[in-house]
Design goal:
about 80% helix; Heme Oxygenase, Chain A; binds fe (ii) ion; about 230 residues
Length: about 230
């Protein structure tokens, strides 16, 4: 088995265990939804916000605008759930999340002018990778909820979000394919691998931190009896 498969399996197992632990703990659930909110308002939108330039094709502008509108709707669905759980909606993302985006930006900077179509190729490749990560993140949580808490209001919210994220991941990847020229494909593969490597490198650390935070909230809720 390749290291990348091991990394992915480790992230899946650690996060799945934390998600099961979060059931029945309002604090743990609120923390998870807050992380999703950070992702909707940060990782999923950072690259898309920068795609619009004077040379960006109109169809990419339209795709980015539609997708940003979806992300905004996701953020408001998550805010609604947080309010329903009695949790705050103004917490700021931790350094680890910002560090990942900083590394992605740094590693992709040399490619900004490497493609005929311009920086939009790089930004859409980043968006495609992060949307794919979002699909795995929401899919993993939804699978746990469908099995163990199908009637929970969060389950309906995540069903709705996951459907959109699958569409986003596909359309960003298709946009990149459409933007690059045939002779640029090897360079694109190199770029994709570099972005994916950062995503994987942070994945295990982020999931261990996630497990520790969820375990601590779930334990506190068990000892104190629930309310936030
Ligand atoms: Fe989203
Ligand atoms: Fe998305």
């Amino acid at each position: 088995m390749l290291i990348r498969d091991l990394q992915r399996r480790a992230v899946d197992e650690i996060k799945r265990h934390a998600l099961v632990m979060s059931l029945g703990s309002p604090r743990a659930q609120a923390h998870i939804l807050t992380e999703y909110l950070w992702s909707e308002e940060g990782a999923e939108t950072a690259a898309l916000h920068r795609t619009s330039t004077s040379t960006t094709p109109a169809w990419v502008d339209k795709l980015a605008a539609n997708q940003l509108a979806d992300e905004q709707r996701h953020a408001s669905l998550l805010r609604d759930r947080l309010v329903a759980l009695g949790a705050r909606t103004d917490r700021q993302p931790p350094g680890l999340m910002k560090a990942k985006l900083w590394w992605v930006e740094r590693v992709t900077a040399p490619y900004m002018n490497a493609f005929e179509a311009g920086p939009v190729v790089v930004l859409m490749a980043i968006a495609a990778q992060l949307e794919g990560t979002g699909v795995r993140m929401f899919g993993r949580h939804l699978a746990v909820l469908e099995e163990m808490a199908a009637d929970d209001p969060t389950t309906a919210t995540l069903r709705e979000i996951l459907g959109d994220e699958k569409r986003h991941a596909k359309s960003c990847a298709a946009a990149v394919d459409r933007l690059v020229r045939e002779e640029e494909r090897p360079k694109l593969e190199e770029l994709r691998e570099k972005i994916a490597r950062i995503d994987r490198a942070f994945g295990v650390t982020i999931s261990v931190v996630f497990w520790c935070v969820i375990a601590s909230y779930a334990t506190r809720d068990r000892l104190r009896g629930g309310a936030l």
